[in-house]
TrEMBL record:
Sequence positions bearing N6-(pyridoxal phosphate)lysine: K212
GO biological-process terms attached to the record: L-serine biosynthetic process; pyridoxine biosynthetic process
Localization annotation: Cytoplasm
E.C. numbers: 2.6.1.52
Name this polypeptide is given: Phosphoserine aminotransferase
Residues annotated as binding pyridoxal 5'-phosphate: W116, T167, D187, Q211, N258, T259
Pathway assigned in UniProt: Cofactor biosynthesis; pyridoxine 5'-phosphate biosynthesis; pyridoxine 5'-phosphate from D-erythrose 4-phosphate: step 3/5; Amino-acid biosynthesis; L-serine biosynthesis; L-serine from 3-phospho-D-glycerate: step 2/3
Subunit structure: Homodimer.
Classification via InterPro entries: Aminotrans_V_dom (IPR000192), Pser_aminoTfrase (IPR022278), PyrdxlP-dep_Trfase (IPR015424), PyrdxlP-dep_Trfase_major (IPR015421), PyrdxlP-dep_Trfase_small (IPR015422)
Role summary: Catalyzes the reversible conversion of 3-phosphohydroxypyruvate to phosphoserine and of 3-hydroxy-2-oxo-4-phosphonooxybutanoate to phosphohydroxythreonine.
The encoding gene: serC
Lineage: Bacteria, Pseudomonadati, Bdellovibrionota, Oligoflexia, Silvanigrellales
Length: 380
């Protein structure tokens, strides 16, 4: 065989001595880490590592084809949309996306709901477009996502850009909003493979870096509606966008226009298999909501101060603080004694941030919630 069969047992649960709540790159399931370790030096049974295999070899071509199929299955992508892999991160896509979906002078709509959404806005405001900022979360210090039904979106807008989950501030749309005939573009870096309710009929494009929910840093996924992919062939010419950054060129070459990020794609393959064998995105969503319930129950029990409005709380990034800054630092230090790591809040926000993507088990969330409970009783 060219690619070794996965040995994942979806019923196996792992208890780790260390519980790691990094906002990204995020934890991988222990089963995935073990499999990558076992296969690293001889990935394909020919004495060669995936780190050194040619991207033109039959071994890599099969891995690439399999990973595309897994991505389509796990992300629940309909036949109306195409899937491609890119070495660009989300910030590069901030710049590339408007050049695929709009021409100079055309209208597009954006929302500013956090740091990464703000950076996306900065990119387009530097372009020769008519930009409509339909929601500005800076006015409320990003504690809310507003009311999408009241946004004033020009009818001729080519798309509305939404950041589905805001990792720094801990906000997320409980339901992804749609706007009639105006398509949406979704930054789902921290939510793809974690929720099942993508409104595909209204979605022009989804993009997501892998290192949160379905892999490691170094590769991102772009899911674009087929008709818009075809239209982009002419639109990118009007924007003088080079071939190397064109989604259609990457798609035409099966995500191997040039040497792709082979190892991150391999890691994504193994992570997608684990998700698939565990029950797919529906199971990931179920577990995410269970983890969120555990943590928010403790936040709402007293002592802890949640940062965001309750109707837009993230299911992955739990952001809160204690009454005093010195208590935040004490909480972090006490957590470290219990091997609960990487929970310091983002530098501009402070407080506590515990991130729990697909690779973090419900057991780890339960351990953290129990620590919060014990800490409140002891120091509250």
């Amino acid at each position: 065989m060219i690619i070794k069969k996965s040995s994942f047992n979806p019923n196996e649960r792992f208890f780790m001595n260390v519980h790691y709540f990094s906002p990204g790159p995020a934890s991988l399931p222990e089963a995935v880490r073990k499999q990558i370790k076992e296969e690293l030096l001889d990935t394909f049974g020919i004495g060669v590592s995936v780190m050194e295999i040619s991207h033109r070899s039959k071994q890599y071509e099969q891995l690439n084809e399999e990973t595309h199929a897994l991505a389509r299955k796990v992300f629940q992508v309909p036949n109306t949309h195409s899937v491609l892999f890119s070495c660009c991160g989300a910030q590069q896509h901030f710049s590339i996306i408007p050049q695929h979906l709009s021409k100079p002078g055309e209208e597009i709509a954006y929302t500013d709901t956090g740091i990464w959404a703000h950076l996306a806005c900065e990119e387009v405001f530097a372009m020769p477009r008519k930009i409509n900022l339909v929601y500005d979360g800076r006015n409320c210090d990003y504690v809310s996502l507003g009311n999408p039904s009241k946004w004033d979106i020009p009818k001729n807008s080519k798309y509305v850009h939404l950041t589905v989950n805001n990792t720094v501030y801990g906000t997320e749309y409980a339901k992804i909003p749609t706007f009639g005939d105006i398509p949406i573009v979704l930054d789902m870096t921290s939510s793809l493979a974690g929720r099942t309710d993508i409104p595909w009929e209204s979605t022009a494009l989804v993009y997501a870096s892998a290192q949160k929910n379905f892999g490691i840093a170094g590769v991102s996924v772009v899911i674009i509606r087929n008709d818009l992919l075809e239209k982009s062939r002419e639109i990118t010419k009007a924007n003088y966008l080079g071939k190397a950054l064109s989604y259609h060129a990457i798609f035409d070459t099966k995500s191997a226009l040039n040497t792709p990020p082979v190892f991150p794609i391999f890691a994504m393959n193994r992570m997608l298999k684990w998700i698939d064998h565990s029950g797919g995105t529906p199971t990931m969503e179920k577990w995410s909501l269970e983890k969120a319930k555990l943590i928010y129950s403790e936040i709402d029990a007293g002592l802890y101060i949640g940062r965001t409005d309750k109707d837009c709380r993230s299911r992955h990034n739990f952001v809160f603080k204690l009454p005093k800054e010195e208590q935040d630092n004490h909480f972090i230090a006490e957590a470290a004694k219990h091997n609960l790591l990487e929970i310091k809040g983002y530098r501009s926000v402070g407080g506590i941030r515990a991130s729990m993507y697909n690779g973090v088990s419900v057991e780890s969330a339960s351990v953290f919630a129990e620590f919060m409970r014990d800490y409140r009783k002891k120091f509250g």
